[in-house]
Design a protein that fits this description.
Length: 320
């Protein structure tokens, strides 16, 4: 029996975007070679889902071109609507509200996808095949655009997670509700992205598992409603949070037990830099992160095989 794929997805973007400010730095570029070296030690191949400011960083472009040239990883597209050209204001302060791309008019969505795709393909001299939406917001129009521009894989779906309670535009409806989306890879129905269909765009949902049983989740959500609070059920991601190796291993085991032929890991590029995120603030935090990664990767090397998203797509096409 062939081993399941281990897919590493890195949202490659500016430093500490959790803070509200009107300028973006890209110092985290200097911290990526260490992570790349760790992946190569275990024969894993990260996918750097790259947004506008990183594509404009010459040092990052040089780093990523080398990864591509050596066949040790992939570059894909990641789009933060509020600072990705062409810039047309949607709210009174887009930097503060960080509106979702799907909240913009259709012609602006198209223009941003067009600009980012051409920018990345020019910078890295390779076809963009993989994509993740900024702030995980995805819909049917967005999916159809990705197909039009030659993308093969999307990994924006976060099963069991509802982003409707995370506002973008103050007058908007929030993000996408993925609670009833599949948790396995599927070719998208362009009329309803929550369903498998006959398009050639492959959706590869994040590896996410409920923290509690269905009964406990229902009870907790009922309690929250009584208190006037609305939130998505508690979940665990295949994502480092500091000292959570056991949780991540449980997500892997449960995902594979459900019949998945892959597990998908994610982190932001800025989380490899001290102070680049709210989670890993100090050098000691970063050293702890790498201890966790070493432990997780050594464990996964026995159970999985490293692939890029484009390689996983090719595998699915052969199966189909």
């Amino acid at each position: 029996m062939t081993k399941p794929a281990f897919l590493i997805t890195i949202d490659t973007e500016g430093d500490n975007l959790w803070q509200n400010h009107d300028r973006i730095s890209t110092e985290n570029t200097r911290f990526l070679p260490r992570f790349q070296a760790l992946c190569e030690k275990y024969a894993f191949k990260p996918v750097y889902l790259t947004n506008y400011e990183m594509a404009m960083d010459a040092e990052y472009v040089e780093f990523a071109r080398d990864v591509i040239a050596r066949g040790t990883g992939e570059v894909g597209m990641h789009l933060h609507a509020w600072n990705s050209p062409p810039l047309v204001p949607l709210t009174d302060d887009d930097w503060r509200h960080k509106p979702y791309l799907i909240e913009y008019p259709a012609e602006q969505i198209r223009a941003k996808v067009d600009h980012m795709t051409k920018l990345l393909e020019d910078a890295f001299q390779t076809k963009m095949l993989s994509h993740r939406a900024g702030r995980w917001a995805f819909n049917e129009f967005y999916a159809s655009l990705l197909l039009e521009y030659g993308y093969q894989v999307d990994c924006s779906v976060t099963p069991r997670v509802n982003w409707q309670y995370s506002p973008g535009h103050p007058q908007g409806k929030g993000g996408t509700d993925y609670c009833r989306f599949p948790s396995r890879a599927y070719f998208i129905d362009l009329q309803d992205i929550a369903k498998p269909g006959h398009s050639t765009l492959l959706e590869v949902p994040m590896s996410i598992q409920h923290k509690h049983s269905a009964l406990m989740n229902a009870a907790k959500q009922g309690y929250d409603r009584l208190r006037g609070k609305k939130r998505s059920p508690s979940v665990h991601w295949l994502r480092p949070a500091g000292g959570n190796v056991e949780q991540m291993q449980q997500v892997v085991q449960r995902s594979l037990a459900e019949g998945n032929d892959y597990v998908e890991f994610m982190l932001h590029s800025s989380e490899f830099m001290p102070g680049g995120s709210p989670t890993f603030k100090t050098e000691q935090d970063i050293e702890g992160l790498y201890r966790d990664l070493e432990q997780l990767f050594a464990w996964l090397q026995q159970r999985t095989v490293g692939m890029t998203l484009a390689e996983y797509y090719q595998k699915q096409m052969k199966v189909g």
